[in-house]
UniProtKB/TrEMBL annotation:
Family membership: Belongs to the glycosyl hydrolase 28 family.
Molecular function terms from GO: polygalacturonase activity
Alphabetized InterPro entries for the sequence: GH28_Enzymes (IPR051801), Glyco_hydro_28 (IPR000743), PbH1 (IPR006626), Pectin_lyas_fold (IPR012334), Pectin_lyase_fold/virulence (IPR011050)
SMART domains according to UniProt: PbH1 (SM00710)
Pfam families xrefs: Glyco_hydro_28
Segments passing through the bilayer: 21-39
Name listed for the protein in its UniProt record: Pectate lyase superfamily protein domain-containing protein
Keyword Membrane appears in the UniProt entry: yes
Keywords assigned: Glycosidase, Hydrolase, Membrane, Transmembrane, Transmembrane helix
Taxonomic source organism: Nyssa sinensis
Length: 482
């Protein structure tokens, strides 16, 4: 056992809090005792286990649901609490060691029926920790996990290969508060418990230009399969809040995600080079896109060629005064296709749905279905833009132009809008196959016109009168889907 613990000692000694040897001894004793409990089957009350079962995806009252995207296993056989690992929920003590020990311990049950770690009511401060496979992190009612205010408790990790560097700074990036790499079958849920990244310190580092490495996410999954994130409140992420990257079969539902409306880059959910992702019934309020679908950045994303595909974003409600309800891009170099955005309700925001790309991105955005979107007081309800003018380094290829084709937009109502759609494609790569039906942009001054450049498509039942580029009245059969 001691051999296996060595890396943890390294982290402890290099980190911010240095627990006494007496405390470590206590922790190990507690573990030994809990192992004993497990082998003698005196585990935890049955109701805790059945609670985790109730995260089932069937209870949607006949509405479409994410059910097909996540495969539920049987309840985890082993259930323990963070307090079994010396955790102290007093809002002051660092629980980094406790969480890391707990996960290390629970890893050993991955092939023995899986494990669930309960976080009870309390205020649990922690640095970053990794999750494991066949595992449930369960935040009970009143449980709040707080991200440490010590940047060293968010160690630097490798940049993503599809970005070639940290998104904000060259080199490595701070690891997310809760992190998973190469995992299968992971659930993070609970009775609306909270994970609070306490991002203010990080936003200030960004604002005052003293940030050394790219900020960490609140939760990141990499290279993982069959992941469910539900029934929790996530607050104040330093950077993008939930970032699944190189993942498949990810469900994010019944989440509340909040950050101050001026907090920089606090996107809600960013599926990035992922396939089969379903997001539904979320309320999101933040300083950046509520949801942004991505797939890598310029030459790094092009080389990695990991698309985002088969993504559903449904029944999301929220506000973002400077960004969009749903964004596609601007990092899209691995390609993005088969995205459905439906039953979206965006209020008091800069844009409703926005497609963003640029010269040098390469890749494609294809077959995007956007339907039943309600907007209130959204400045630019529908926006396509180029000119992100944001490249990882000088190695980007100006000839790598993105292909945008097949954007189907139906049943949109925008109330109290300020501008008509702004649709700007690339001169050397017009956006084509844009189909809009039954789109009403209301509340505009009579003089307001659509603004279109380098776009081609068809419209029907659209007010106010769209730009001529979208009045392609011949051969509109490609736009005749429901
Ligand atoms: C997870 O559990 C399943 C079913 O028991 C098992 O087949 C698989 O090997 C486990 N995964 C890991 C990584 O241990
Ligand atoms: C968490 O996983 C990352 C790799 O994904 C690794 O670099 C890091 O050391 C791990 N942290 C801990 C505390 O095990
Ligand atoms: C989800 O949160 C609600 C409200 O706190 C709670 O009643 C319900 O039991 C939670 N569901 C699960 C599966 O924990
Ligand atoms: C969960 O908690 C958040 C924050 O307190 C609250 O806004 C939200 O309504 C709660 N969700 C449920 C389902 O109770
Ligand atoms: C920048 O913000 C950080 C975090 O709040 C703070 O510790 C630091 O003193 C600030 N630096 C400057 C130059 O304002
Ligand atoms: C898009 O969806 C269609 C129909 O479900 C499927 O045939 C196609 O393979 C998907 N494309 C990608 C890139 O996943
Ligand atoms: C477009 O995507 C939808 C789902 O997002 C899928 O049903 C359809 O088959 C796709 N079409 C093509 C041509 O891939
Ligand atoms: C449209 O979306 C809203 C949520 O914004 C939902 O309440 C409504 O049922 C949806 N309508 C249809 C026809 O699906
Ligand atoms: C047009 O869209 C609105 C808003 O989604 C919807 O209520 C209405 O039924 C749609 N009309 C048609 C003819 O589909
Ligand atoms: C009409 O739209 C189709 C599909 O986007 C395109 O191939 C064709 O060139 C367009 N025709 C005109 C006259 O714009
Ligand atoms: C399409 O129809 C509109 C209005 O009916 C007309 O103004 C426009 O010139 C037509 N466009 C083409 C390419 O025929």
């Amino acid at each position: 056992m001691m051999d296996g613990e060595k890396p943890i000692f390294g982290v402890i000694m290099g980190g911010y809090t240095r627990p006494s040897w007496a405390f470590l001894l206590l922790v190990f004793t507690v573990i030994a005792v809990s192992c004993l409990q497990i082998t003698t089957k005196t585990v935890f009350p049955i109701w805790v286990v059945s609670n985790s079962e109730k995260t089932g995806l069937s209870d949607t009252g006949g509405r479409p649901s994410c059910a097909g995207f996540f495969r539920h296993g049987p309840p985890r056989k082993t259930v323990m609490s963070i307090t079994d690992f010396g955790g102290i929920g007093d809002g002051k003590t660092s629980n980094t060691v406790a969480f890391r020990l707990a996960i290390r311990h629970m890893q050993s049950f991955a092939e023995k029926g899986g494990a669930q770690l309960n976080v009870p009511r309390g205020r649990w401060v922690t640095g970053s920790f990794n999750l494991t496979s066949n595992f449930t992190l369960f935040l009970q009612e009143g449980a709040v996990i707080f991200g440490s205010q010590d940047p060293e408790e968010w160690p630097i990790t490798e940049p993503l290969p599809s970005y070639g560097r940290g998104r904000e700074r060259l080199g490595g990036r701070h690891i997310s508060l809760i992190h998973g790499d190469g995992l299968t079958n992971v659930v993070i849920t609970g009775q609306n418990g909270t994970i609070d990244g306490q991002g203010k310190m990080w936003w200030e580092l960004w604002w005052n230009r003293t940030l050394k490495h790219t900020r960490g996410h609140l939760l990141e999954f990499m290279n993982s399969h069959n992941v469910l994130i539900s029934n929790l409140t996530f607050l104040n992420s330093p950077f993008w809040t939930i970032h699944p990257v190189y993942c498949s079969n990810v469900v994010i539902k019944d989440m509340t995600i909040l950050a101050p409306l001026n907090a920089p880059n606090t996107d809600g959910i960013d599926p990035d080079s992922c396939i089969h992702v379903c997001i539904e019934d979320c309320y999101i309020e933040s300083g950046d896109d509520l949801v942004a679908v991505k797939s890598g950045w310029d030459q790094y994303g092009i080389n990695m060629a990991r698309p985002s595909s088969n993504i559903i974003i449904r029944r999301v409600l929220g506000t973002t005064p400077t960004c969009s309800g749903v964004g596609i891009g601007s990092e899209m170099s691995g390609g993005i296709s088969n995205v459905t955005i439906e039953d979206l309700h965006v209020r008091d925001s800069a844009a409703g749905v926005r497609i963003k790309t640029d010269q040098g991105r390469g890749g494609y955005i294809a077959n995007i279905t956007i339907r039943n979107i309600t907007m209130e007081r959204v400045k630019v309800p529908i926006r396509f833009s180029r000119g992100a003018n944001d490249h990882p380094d000088e190695g980007w290829d100006p000839k790598a132009v993105p292909k945008v084709k097949g954007i189907f937009i139906t049943n949109v109502v925008s109330l109290n809008s300020i501008k008509a759609p702004i649709l700007e494609g690339l001169e050397n790569a017009p956006f084509e196959g844009i189909c809009m039906k039954n789109v009403s942009i209301l509340g505009l001054a009579p003089s307001v016109r659509w603004n279109c450049e380098h776009v081609l498509g068809f419209t029907d039942g659209v007010t106010p009168m769209p730009c001529p580029q979208l009045l392609n009245n011949s051969s509109s059969s490609w736009c005749s889907y429901s």
